[in-house]
Amino acid sequence: MPPAVRFGVNYTPSEGWFHHWLDFDLDSVRADLDSIAALGLDHVRVFPLWPYFQPNRTLIRPRAVEQLVALADAAAERGLDVNVDGLQGHLSSFDFLPAWTRTWHRRNLFTDPDVLDGQANLLRTLAAALADRPNFIGMTLGNEVNQFSAGPHPDPDRATPDEIEAWLSRMLAACEEGAPGRLHLHAEYDATWYQDDQPFTPGQAARHGAVTAVHSWVFNGTAQRYGRASVPSEHHAAWLVELSKAWAGDPHRPVWLQEVGAPAPLVPPEHAAAFTEATVANALDCPDLWGITWWCSHDVSRSLADFPELEYGLGLLTNDRKPKDTALVLERAARGPSSTPAARRTALVVPADPAARSRCAPGGPVFEAFFRLVADGARPTAVLDSRAADREHLAARGITETVTADQVLEGGTRS
Q1: 3-class SS at 392?
Q2: Secondary structure class of 244 (helix, strand, coil)
Q3: Which residue, 262, 240, 257, 227, is CA-closest to 191?
Q4: pLDDT tens digits for 68-112?
Q5: Domain ranges of the chain
Q6: CATH class of 6-335
Q7: CB-based burial label for 186 (10 Å; 0-12, 13-18, 19+)
Q8: What is the pTM of this model?
Q9: How many helices (H) and strands (E) would you count in the chain?
Q10: 84 forms bridges with which residues in the sheet?
Q11: Over the stretch 357-412, which tens digit does the pLDDT of each residue have?
Q12: N or C: which end of the chain has fewer CB within 10 A?
């Protein structure tokens, strides 16, 4: 029997946001974790800010590491497991990069040998500090680090896919050295799946690390183009889960829906619960789903300036730790009975060429075809065009028919 799907939340401290590391208050953290555990969730994803933990390339602050361990121990006391993002990186429109990588010390995050040494040391140190904690799930390399590697970032650290391949291999190895046998992974925003010139490729996302992580945000053009209650918006997370499987080597590789939320005003607060319920239900209909981790736990305080408007209200809980309707939806799902979804028998053919990824993005023909199938009552998955005739691969995934985007959009014959 497959393990039950995990339900968790990305932990955003109610006091001080992620700047709480500067004035770490364990009692406040405990109160936050109490409000999360009360929802029946089983894990949190935690974000140590890179410049606060490693302000100099050869200085990892022992006190900061101790505070991270204290947070993990407080989570354990409340029955919560902990995943830690190491190179943090980018959060809620702000970049947090140490001074030894910027301006007068400008060095590439993905290729400079000294930067790589520093990054690997931090990841190894954080993993080792938590390695003996039973509730430590493992490390995520960082939050959507691919946004630093290409446009639309205003000052990207350019790298080739081969250089990213080497970076991923080394950083994941550092995590494994620090905490052998844990669930170590990397996570990107959806440009990996949709942007033709992204050096972080779908194949890397689906083959490096213990699980594939996908981050689903309908402000990427989905809600704007199709509407908040449309089939594409309510099934967007499920689409990314199934799209990721096309590139996986293991036909049953687990996929973690590591970030998903209800962003206002595209999803108005009065509709957030319905959006949450639909998104969760559709994701749970995806086989091999490891877990759903909602963004985020607590609202950002209005006393903090300069956030995009949508960031202030994304929490399951208010700034004073009161659950919203979205929290109650996630609680029902977390406490509800688990079931194993049937295999998805119909596979939409997607291009294996990373330079054609935009065909899978909102407005692209593959994207349109997938949701045409869903609207017609199908439960499609995705398969690479290079594997569409591989009977052994199709059988291993339970696929019994394949169909191209042209066939779906033009009403042609399936194979």
Answers
A1: helix
A2: helix
A3: 240
A4: 999 999 999 999 999 999 999 899 999 999 999 999 999 999 999
A5: 6-335, 346-410
A6: alpha beta
A7: buried
A8: 0.97
A9: 15, 12
A10: 46, 139
A11: 999 999 999 999 999 999 999 999 999 999 999 999 999 999 999 999 999 999 85
A12: N
